Structures are given as C-alpha cells and as structure tokens.
Amino acid sequence: MTTAPVTTTVEDVLAFLAAALGTEVGPDDDYFAAGLADSLFALELVTFVEQRFRLTVEVEDLAIDNFRTAARIIAFAQARGARTDAAA
C-alpha cells in the first residue's frame, strides 16, 4: 500500500481549521492567541482530531498546547502513535 506524504495531513488539518474558524491559518499560526477560537471550537477541534487520527483524546491530553497550531496537532497525533498520512 502506498501512503501519501505527511503534507496531506497538514492540508487536511488546515482545511478543517479554515472551515471552522472562517479564515485561513498557517501550520504554525496560534488561532487561540489570535482570538479566533473559543471553547465551542475547542470541542469541535478535539472531535476532529479523534476522528481524523483515529485516537482518543484523554483528559490529561487536553492541554491547549497540544491543539493551538496545526503543527502541534500533528505532533500530538504522532506522539500518540497515530498515522499521519492520507490513509489515517
């Protein structure tokens, strides 16, 4: 089976963020610090991460630092053993 490059995952996460936030952000843009995100968005984001990466976000994982940028989301998923390619 051939897997797509990790950039596909970045694009997937950025597409979700753009749709949910109503504006495009870059991989290292902190949408919480920019005031673009609220608590409802945070819940949507956790749900997206769980579904996209097929993992369970535990209570101890809910630190904002795990989710404040697309790059950190991907690093979090990788640290939890999730596949971060197109087949994930």
Walk me through what this model shows.
- This protein is mainly α and 88 residues long.
- The protein has three helices and no strands.
- It has helices at residues 6-21, 39-53, 70-79.
- Helix 1 runs antiparallel to helix 2 and helix 1 packs across helix 3.
- The longest helix has 16 residues, at 6-21.
- The two termini are 13 Å apart.
- The model is unreliable at 1-5 (pLDDT under 50).
Keywords, separated by commas or semicolons:
disordered N terminus, mainly alpha, 88 residues
Strand/helix succession: HHH
pLDDT < 50 runs, ≥5 residues: 1-5
**Structural class, judged by helices and strands?**
mainly alpha
Q: What portion of residues is helical?
A: 40-55%
Shape: globular
User: Treating each run of at least 4 consecutive H or I residues as one helix, how many helices?
Assistant: 3
| Number of DSSP E strands | 0
Kindly, what is the distance between the CA atoms of the first and last residues, rounded to a whole number of angstroms? 13 Å
- Assembly level: single chain
Radius of gyration: 12 Å
Largest sheet: none
Average predicted confidence as pLDDT:
88
Strand content: under 5%
In short:
The chain has 88 residues and is mainly α.
Secondary structure: elements and pairs:
Elements: H1 6-21, H2 39-53, H3 70-79
Helix pairs in contact: 1-2, 1-3
